[in-house]
Predict the structure.
Amino acid sequence: MKSLSDILSKHNPLTGPQYISREFQDFGLRLAHELNDMKNKSLYIKLAKTVPRYILEEAKNSIKDASNVRSKAKLFMWKLKQLKLKP
């Protein structure tokens, strides 16, 4: 896990509209970018804040190699639901 100062040093608030001040915000934005779903970036920030990180990482890693899908975001949400229901 990176320190907050490392994360904030990479982001310049003057170059873009993403004003982040917390680590979960950075993780949510990176997740939205990897899934090509910047339209719903607030959803991923909320998920990063409320859902345990290991579940999000497992869902992200399971769809990382999926190449023949229409929407990686939909596949990610499906896998996330599967992992949350798992006892």
